[in-house]
Design goal:
disordered N terminus, alpha/beta, four-stranded antiparallel β-sheet, 2 domains, Alpha-Beta Plaits, Aminopeptidase
Length: about 450
C-alpha cells in the first residue's frame, strides 16, 4: 500500500493536488465519523452465521447517523421487572390455549381472549372468519390501510404431548408450545397497543392476529389482504428467524408433484416393460444437478427436498405409476417461473404439477423503516446484523404491495422444538426495542406529533 501511495503522488507531481485531498478529508471525515460504522462490519452478534448478510449490514450501518438515534425511555429495575411479569402472565395465558391450526375451536377461543383484552379500550375491534379460520384486527380507524401494521399469528403446530401446552417458568426461561413461534411476541404486541391506547401516533397503526399461519395463511392473512383490502406501508412481523436481528429476506416456497407413467410387465421379465419408479428416480437425480443447492456452509442457496415417493403395486410387478412430492425453497434472487421453466425443460419422463407456492420476502438494506428498526436495536444497546432466512411467514402476502417487511424474533429457541422457550429478559428486551422503534418510525408518518 505504501509503495502505491508513493507512485500515486509521483505521478501527480503537484503539491496542490495533495492539499486538495487533505481538504477533502478534512471536510468529509467528520460526517463519516458521526456514523455508526464498525471497524469491521462483520463483527456483529451473528457475524459467523452462514446466513449473515455482510455487505447489506455494512451498507445499513453506513447510512445510520449516530446523532440521529433517539434516546430510549429509561426504566428502573423495578419497572423492568413489572414489564416482565406482565408479559410472563399474558404469554402463559396464550400458551395455555391449545390453539393448533387444526383445532378451530381453540383458535376461536384464543381470538376471544385477545378480543376481551381490548373490549374496554378505545380501539375498534374487527373479527373475520373464513372457512372456520378466525382473525382479529385492532385499530383506531375502520379502514384497513395502515401506515404501520403489527402482524402476528396465534396458531401453533400441534404437539401430541398435551403437557407442552402448560406454561412452565424455570428460573430465567418460560417454556410452552408455540411460545417462541410466536405467542410471546404476540403478548408483547398486545401490551404495546394496550399501553398506547391514548397515543395519537397509533391513529394509523393496526394490530392483526390470524390463526392459520402454520398451514399457509390462506384463510387468514391472505384472505385479509386479497379480499378485505388489508394494506400497510410497514409490516412489523416478529416471526423471523434470528433473535433481535432483522431478517432482510425469506425464501419463497414452491411445492411440486412430479408424476411418471411406465409400462406394465412381470417382475421376472422387466425388459418387457418400463418402470415408472426407475424413470422417476432418474428425473429426480437430474433435478439435483440443475442448481447450486444449499448446504450447511451456504444456506442462502435454493434447496430441494424429496418429501414423498409413491409407486408400484406389487414387488413382482414393473411399476406403471410413480410420483414424488418435492419442496423447493428459493431466495429472492430467483423467481418461481424460471425455476419451473428449468425443471420442465429437464424432465425426461415426468409431468409437473404445482401444489403450493409462496413469494419470497425481501427488503433493501437502505429501506427507511429497516434503518429505523436498526436504530431502535442500537438504542437498546445491541449491535445487530442483517440476516437472511431459510423459512417463511405470513409477511409474504404483503410483498405485492411493496410494503417494508420487518422480521425478527425474541431471544430463546426457534419454533417447533420439543422444549420451546423464551428468556424472561428477552421478553422485556423485545418490548423495549418495539418502544424504541415507535420513536424512530414516528418521524416517517407523524412529524406533527
Amino acid at each position: 500500500m505504501k509503495s502505491r501511495v508513493k507512485i500515486f503522488f509521483r505521478q501527480q507531481n503537484s503539491i496542490h493536488f495533495f492539499l486538495g485531498i487533505i481538504a477533502f478529508l478534512f471536510v468529509f471525515v467528520p460526517y463519516t465519523s458521526a456514523q455508526i460504522i464498525p471497524a469491521n462490519p462483520i463483527e456483529t452478534e451473528l457475524s459467523d452465521n452462514p446466513l449473515f448478510a455482510e455487505g447489506e449490514t455494512g451498507l445499513a450501518y453506513g447510512l445510520i447517523n449516530q446523532d440521529a438515534i433517539k434516546q430510549p425511555k429509561k426504566y428502573s429495575p423495578t419497572e423492568i421487572s413489572e414489564i416482565q411479569q406482565q408479559l410472563v402472565k399474558m404469554t402463559s395465558e396464550l400458551v395455555a390455549i391449545p390453539s393448533s391450526s387444526m383445532n378451530l375451536a381453540a383458535c376461536a377461543e384464543i381470538i376471544d381472549y385477545v378480543h376481551n383484552l381490548f373490549s374496554e379500550t378505545t380501539y375498534n375491534i374487527t373479527r373475520i372468519e373464513n372457512n372456520g379460520v378466525h382473525s382479529i384486527i385492532i385499530a383506531k380507524k375502520n379502514d384497513l390501510d395502515f401506515d404501520v401494521l403489527f402482524l402476528g399469528h396465534l396458531d401453533v403446530v400441534h404437539n401430541p404431548d398435551l403437557s407442552s401446552y402448560t406454561p412452565t417458568l424455570r428460573e430465567q426461561t418460560l417454556h410452552g408450545r408455540g411460545i417462541s413461534d410466536m405467542k410471546a411476541a404476540a403478548a408483547g404486541m398486545i401490551k404495546l397497543f394496550l399501553d398506547n391506547a391514548d397515543n395519537p401516533q397509533f391513529e394509523n397503526y393496526g394490530l392483526v392476529f390470524t390463526t392459520d399461519e402454520q398451514i399457509g395463511g390462506f384463510n387468514g392473512t391472505a384472505h385479509l389482504v386479497q379480499t378485505h383490502g388489508l394494506k400497510a406501508k410497514v409490516v412489523f412481523n416478529p416471526d423471523g428467524g434470528h433473535p433481535l436481528n432483522p431478517s432482510i429476506s425469506e425464501k419463497g416456497i414452491l411445492q411440486i408433484k412430479i408424476t411418471t407413467k411406465g409400462k406394465a410387465a412381470h417382475g421376472s421379465r422387466p425388459w418387457e416393460g418400463s418402470s415408472a419408479i426407475e424413470m422417476l428416480l432418474g428425473d429426480i437425480d437430474h433435478l439435483k444437478t440443475l442448481f447450486d443447492y444449499g448446504s450447511l456452509e451456504n444456506q442462502k442457496n435454493i434447496t430441494l427436498n424429496i418429501g414423498t415417493i409413491n409407486g408400484g403395486e406389487a414387488t413382482n410387478a414393473v411399476s406403471v405409476d410413480a410420483d414424488a412430492t418435492i419442496d423447493i425453497r428459493y431466495p429472492p434472487t430467483l423467481t418461481k417461473n424460471e425455476i419451473i421453466s428449468k425443471i420442465n425443460s429437464n424432465l425426461q419422463n415426468s409431468q409437473i404439477e404445482i401444489l403450493t407456492e409462496a413469494d419470497p420476502v425481501a427488503i433493501a438494506p437502505n429501506d427507511e423503516a429497516l434503518l429505523d428498526l436498526m436504530k431502535a436495536l442500537i438504542a437498546q444497546g445491541r449491535q445487530p446484523g442483517l440476516m437472511h432466512e431459510t423459512g417463511g411467514c405470513d409477511a409474504r402476502w404483503f410483498m405485492p404491495q411493496g410494503s417494508s417487511i420487518l422480521l425478527t424474533r425474541l431471544e430463546g429457541t426457534g419454533g417447533l422444538v420439543d422444549d420451546e422457550y423464551v428468556t424472561i429478559e428477552g421478553l422485556s428486551n423485545y418490548y423495549l426495542v418495539m418502544e424504541s422503534f415507535l420513536n424512530e418510525v414516528a418521524d416517517n408518518f407523524y412529524n406533527k406529533f
